[in-house]
Specification:
Helix content is about 55%, strand content about 20%. It is of the alpha+beta class. Strand 8 and strand 9 form a beta hairpin. It is elongated and about 100 Å long. It starts with a helix and ends with a helix. About 35% of the residues are buried.
Length: about 400
């Protein structure tokens, strides 16, 4: 029979039948707080990564394919049957679409602003803009009546003094100056000022009219991969595939591939700094929890000196007595871990649903604290905490070997 485990489960955490001592209560609270803070740190960082990545991919894609300028200086991509066949043959390419991005000028009677007019021709970008829409609607560009409607950012709208349903002149300068009067169908706000300041979305027909491009031409191809995690590796594979096709004479233009990590390097570098912060928080919280738990264990040992002396007098070896108190301390730790998990998971669920805690969007690119409950990460964290706590308790339990049965009996 494993009597240390049995005794560790049955013995009171107080002394002489009393409730748990203050030291034990402090240790339980410290473990609860430490675990709660660690779970919150992981959930918030994962939430930031999800939100920032979604915003970056909303303005670009996993991989952006562009063409090197030819002899006449054009960098137009023509989606030929050969090029389509190459892209379709890559099993990791989930989807792709042509995009036209044109420099243009929006002008009102009082002011003007330089922007990039982009085609809104794929559902992924449309869904992203819809999720960040603050007024109006996303036009259905399959309808000819929506050809002259655009979606503009709140930043650009405020700079020009515009709002939903207003009209604005859009100038495109090529060999000739072309102008169209456009209607603002919707206003979005992603809190990504670098993008919001420049990006205006319109119909494919409008961009073709400005640029003179055909239906199978564009300034870039937006490629969606089957897995964001392997994006760097698959970008290299795409580049190598196109380079090989060029060398074999299958295609006659050099294509360049850049993924989101390159195009939005500053945002992903910021996210990597958050990883460092999380490691620091986890380390500090683990130290705090272990130190207070050791204090609680020492309190238990002092409270149970008579019990220790009795076990030794009955012939229990020091190792078995130490096991009893390791199990007792683990009871305290597991109670704290359980409380910390329940309280923080409920809090994170409510934050994810109702966004109680707000942020300054100009500093964090998001106007609320984002969270993501990753059950695998939470499970690994809890197992790691239990393992570290167990190993930490082995050393202070050795103080039991110095307690003399006869001394404890006389002191009692």
């Amino acid at each position: 029979m494993n009597y240390p485990l049995y005794l560790g489960r049955k013995i009171s955490l107080g002394s002489e039948g009393r409730n748990a001592s203050p030291g034990v209560k402090v240790a339980t609270a410290a473990i609860s707080l430490s675990v709660a803070v660690m779970i919150a740190s992981i959930a918030i960082v994962l939430g930031f990564k999800r939100e920032i990545t979604d915003k970056v991919l909303g303005f670009t894609s996993h991989v952006v394919m562009t063409a090197e300028a030819g002899p006449e200086g054009d960098n137009i991509i023509t989606l030929t049957p050969t090029l389509k066949k190459i892209l379709d043959s890559q099993d990791y390419v989930k989807d792709y679409s042509l995009q036209i991005s044109l420099p243009a000028i929006l002008k009102t009677p009082e002011d003007f602003k330089g922007i990039f007019l982009r085609t809104l021709s794929d559902t992924r970008t449309a869904d992203f803009l819809r999720s960040n829409l603050i007024s109006g609607r996303i036009p259905d560009y399959s309808q000819d009546s929506a050809r002259l409607e655009i979606v503009i950012s709140r930043m650009a709208a405020n700079q020009l003094g515009l709002k939903q349903d207003d009209k604005v002149d859009c100038y495109f300068i090529n060999d000739d100056v072309m102008v169209r009067r456009l209607k603002i169908a919707g206003v979005y706000d992603s809190h990504f000022d670098a993008y919001d300041d420049l990006m205006v979305y319109g119909s494919r027909a409008l961009s073709e009219a400005f640029s003179g491009l055909k239906s199978n031409q564009g300034s870039s191809i937006l490629i969606t991969l089957d897995d964001f995690k392997d994006m760097d590796e698959k970008t290299i594979r795409l580049q190598n595939t196109m380079d090989k096709a060029l060398s074999e004479g299958i295609i006659y233009k050099y294509y360049r591939f850049e993924n989101a990590h390159v195009q939005a390097a500053n945002y992903f570098q910021w996210l990597s700094m958050l990883d460092t912060n999380v490691i620091v928080v986890l380390t500090l919280m683990m130290i705090v929890g272990c130190v207070t738990l050791i204090s609680g264990m020492l309190t238990l040992i002092l409270d149970k000196k008579r019990f220790i002396g009795l076990l030794k007098a009955l012939g229990a070896p020091n190792g078995k007595v130490r096991e009893v108190f390791v199990y007792l301390a683990m009871r305290v730790a597991l109670t704290g871990i359980f409380i910390g998990n329940i309280l923080m998971i409920i809090s994170l669920y409510l934050q994810n649903r109702y966004h109680f805690f707000k942020l300054d969007a100009s500093s964090y690119y998001i106007d609320f604290v984002p969270v993501e409950l990753d059950w695998v990460a939470i499970g690994i964290l809890n197992l790691g905490v239990i393992a570290v706590v167990y190993m930490t308790l082995i050393l202070p339990s050795r103080i039991i070997s110095r307690i003399s049965p006869s001394a404890t009996m006389r002191s009692e």
